[in-house]
Amino acid sequence: MKKQHVKLSEEDRVYLEGLISKGEIKARVYRRALGLLELDRGKTYTEVAKTLQKSIMTVSNWAAQYKDHGLALLEDQARAGRPIVIDGNQRAKITALACSEPPEGYAQWSLRLLAEKSVELGYVEEISHTEVRHILKKTN
Fold it and tell me: How many Cα atoms sit within 13 Å of 125 on the Cβ side?
């Protein structure tokens, strides 16, 4: 008899079967749900990996994550990344500043001038002229 890698609870099994029968879920969630169901039915990691075209290690990780976290493994976990430094409100203020009249003695706003004025007006604590360029580039 084949070793059973995952033992789903009855409510988890019903939930997963209902989930894959809907048909309107992300492919990633569908594969994970189907993989868990197949492992619960007694299939090996190798068989499930071949069926779902995933590596054996991926299927093994799904089984381990289910044991540790339950059905939370269906959704991706938050990933590390750089936090947002300049929010939408600050971006709007910088864009509005760029659309306003330039200071006396200047024909138009320069990126460095916008960066300096944004800090001076207290819109942001610090900003580089290249970040101002990125903000204005994303504006239509």
Answer: 3
Identify whether the C-beta of residue 97 lies closer than 8 Å to the C-beta of residue 117.
yes
Which among 135, 136, 20, 26 has a CA at the least distance from the CA of 84? 135
Residue 3 banded pLDDT, cuts 50, 70, 90: low
Closest CA to 37 of 55, 12, 58, 1: 12
* Domain boundaries, given as residue ranges, for the chain: 10-74, 88-137
What pLDDT is attached to residue 2?
A: 56
CA 104, 108, 110, 114 torsion: positive or negative?
Answer: positive
Degrees, nearest 5: CA angle 88-93-99: 125
**To 10 degrees, what angle do helices 88-99 and 129-137 make?**
90
pLDDT in tens, 87-99: 999 999 999 999 9
